[in-house]
Structures are given as structure tokens and as C-alpha cells.
Design goal:
Elements lengths: L17 E5 L2 H9 L5 E4 L5 E6 L5 E6 L5 H15 L3 E4 L2 E4 L9 E9 L3 E8 L2 E8 L2 E5 L1 H9 L17 H16 L12 H4 L3 H10 L3 E2 L5 E2 L1 H13 L13 E8 L9 H5 L8 E3 L2 H10 L4 E10 L10 H18 L1 H4 L7 E5 L1
Helix pairs in contact: 1-10, 2-9, 4-6
């Protein structure tokens, strides 16, 4: 979006088109950095929020929670909805994505939002071992069918137009390059990988990659870097599995229109998506605030609600914080592009974007 002049800054009396909530400061700061003309002002409790008017005359507002979690997100959303009466309540930032389906940096447009940890908890003992059983009571906030269809039909190349920093090169691609190069070097067909001129391009995070492979038992540094037997077996497995070469990483993010689960805890559980799929089969993402923001939109009578988040990790122990800033940028730029492209939303031609159901 083109920045506007200082003279066109919005007045408090003007109706806000879209209020964006972020969970934490760095998410908010990335959004502020992507446009030049945000103006800060205090809300009724003295907390700051920002506003701007774009070249199309739409008024945007932005605020962050005081901390992560549903309670804090609901608090700031409720307070500012009461002050600004926005046409759309939105949320951007990062989420965890299902490793089997999405990659780091991909975009999730929530077509359903629900709390996966709500319901009744029954504790009991079995053979003197404490057991917990949760009876799920899931309330979902569903994207209005026409708006969901619009998201699904949005041009497949739209994510190539987002304005983001360079996409980090994933650790997996770097690890495979180093393992293949070590294997070839041991056969004498190429020089050691640390001496290869292309090392900077294919393995920019050399030290981190070496540490990760050493922890997995695929290489050893004793007497010089070399493959272990486990590493050689892994290279053979990869070359048998991918005879045409290991798949290259996408240069651009991919957008998914899918359910997003909300929970109270930061997850590090490789089986969490299998658990969530028992209740909502197509869920691809987990966050800590989305369902709470959608609930505020419903309770406060906000016309529209939209949650768009970038995949920062896979909710397991294999974290990669290098993708955090990229995921934040992708989420806000995708939200802006999608919102501006769908003129029906801007003009209020669609009914409430989210409506709740219970099952």
C-alpha cells in the first residue's frame, strides 16, 4: 500500500476499517516498519495504539497485547473495538504449522478457529498412576462460506507479490547439502565442503548445521569433519528416496485456507496435530490467541474478522527462529493484499465474516 501524506492522517471521528491485533511487541513492530505513516495515540486506559489512512482512504488501526495468550488478546481487542468500532477485527503474527502439510514461512488463513484445550478434565487413578482425560467441548468460529471461497479462489500466485525480507534457507536443505558434499568428498570426487566456493550459498548457517548434524549422530568432528556410519546410511536413504535430487525449497510462501487451533500453551509436542485431528480433521495450524479474537468479534458485533498467520515452527523440538520475522512479514502483507483485493469486504457487502457453531 502506498503511504499517505501527514495531512491525511485519520481523525478519531472517522470509522476504522480494520483493527489489527498482534500478540507481542516484535509482531507489532514489524507491522509498523512496513508502512511509514502510522500515528501513535493512547486508548481509554492509556495504552498506545497506532492508526493510518492508506491511499485508498481506508483507515487501519494496530495494537498489541501486553503479553501472549488469549486473555490478553481478548482484553485489548474488546477495549479497542469499543473505542474504534472497526468494520473488521483482524490478527496477524506467527503460528505453528503441521510439519507434514506446511513449510516454514507459509501463510495460514483461518477458515475455522477453535480452542483445542477446552472442555471437562477428569482426573483418576489407574493402577496407582494418575490419569487425565479431557472431554472436548469445541466451539468453532467459521469463515463465512462466500469469504472462504474467495480465499480459496484467490490467485495461486498472489504470495509472490508480498513485500518481505529474503526467505531464510531451511536447515534441512543445508543439512542435506552438507551430508551429500561430505559423502562425495570422502570418495575423492570433490574437495571438502568447507573449501567449496558455493558453501556460503548452500550452507550459510554452517556452524548451526554442523552442530545439528553432530547431535543427530550423522557427523563427527574428531580428526576432521566426516560422516559417521549413521550419516552414510542416511545419505543412501535420501538418494534412494529422491533419485532425481532432494526437493528444492520454494522461493515464495504458499497460502492455505484451513482450520487453526488455539491453546493456552506454547507447544513442543510432535504428536499434537494427530491429537487435534481427532476433533477437527483438517486443522493445519496452532496459535494462542486466534479463537479469542474471533470470539470478541462475535460478541461485540464486529462485521468481519480475519486471522492470517505465518508458520514459524512445527510445534516440535526442531525450532528454527530464523523464520520468525519472515513469517510475521508474510502474514501482514498477505492480510493487506487479501483485504484490499476483496472490495466486497471493504464496502460491507458481505455478512458477518465469522459465525460460531458448537459440536
Amino acid at each position: 500500500m502506498e503511504p499517505t501524506s501527514l495531512n491525511s492522517s485519520p481523525r478519531l471521528s472517522e470509522k476504522v476499517d480494520i483493527l489489527i491485533i498482534t500478540a507481542v511487541k516484535d509482531e507489532r513492530d514489524v507491522v509498523l516498519r512496513m508502512e511509514e505513516d502510522w500515528k501513535e495515540q493512547p486508548d481509554s486506559s492509556g495504552f498506545p495504539y497506532h492508526v493510518r489512512k492508506d491511499s485508498a482512504g481506508l483507515i487501519w488501526a494496530l495494537a498489541r497485547s501486553v503479553d501472549i495468550g488469549s486473555d490478553f488478546a481478548a482484553n485489548i481487542a474488546t477495549r479497542l473495538v469499543g473505542i474504534l468500532r472497526p468494520r473488521c477485527l483482524a490478527m496477524v503474527g506467527v503460528c505453528a504449522g503441521w510439519r507434514e502439510k506446511v513449510r516454514l514461512g507459509d501463510v495460514i488463513i483461518a477458515e475455522r478457529l477453535f480452542r483445542y484445550d477446552s472442555g471437562k478434565l477428569r482426573a483418576f487413578c489407574e493402577d496407582r498412576v494418575r490419569m487425565d482425560e479431557v472431554f472436548q467441548d469445541i466451539r468453532t468460529y467459521n469463515l463465512e462460506p462466500r469469504w472462504r471461497q474467495s480465499a480459496e479462489d484467490f490467485h495461486s500466485d498472489w504470495t509472490t507479490t508480498v513485500r518481505v525480507i529474503s526467505r531464510p534457507l531451511g536447515y534441512m536443505s543445508q543439512e542435506v547439502w552438507l551430508l551429500y558434499s561430505l559423502n562425495d568428498a570422502e570418495s575423492g570426487s570433490v574437495p571438502p565442503p568447507r573449501e567449496m566456493p558455493e558453501r556460503g550459498a548452500y550452507c550459510p548457517d554452517w556452524t548451526d548445521v554442523v552442530t545439528r548434524l553432530e547431535k543427530r549422530g550423522f557427523i563427527t568432528l574428531q580428526g576432521g569433519i566426516r560422516l559417521t556410519d549413521a550419516g552414510r546410511n542416511y545419505v543412501c536413504e535420501l538418494r534412494d528416496r529422491f533419485p532425481a535430487g532432494y526437493p528444492t525449497e520454494r522461493k515464495h510462501p504458499k497460502a492455505f485456507v484451513a482450520p487453526m487451533a488455539t491453546g493456552n500453551r506454547v507447544m513442543e509436542d510432535s504428536e499434537i496435530f494427530q491429537t487435534i485431528h481427532r476433533y477437527v480433521r483438517k486443522a493445519l495450524a496452532i496459535d494462542m490467541e486466534g479463537a479469542a479474537v474471533a470470539a470478541v468479534a462475535e460478541v461485540e458485533g464486529v462485521e468481519h474478522c480475519l486471522v492470517v498467520k505465518g508458520v514459524q515452527d512445527h510445534a516440535d523440538s526442531k525450532k528454527d527462529d530464523r523464520f520468525r520475522e519472515y513469517a510475521i512479514e508474510v502474514s501482514i502483507d498477505s492480510l493487506q493484499l487479501f483485504y484490499l483485493t476483496n472490495s466486497g469486504l471493504q464496502r460491507g457487502l458481505l455478512p458477518s465474516l465469522f459465525h460460531s457453531t458448537k459440536h
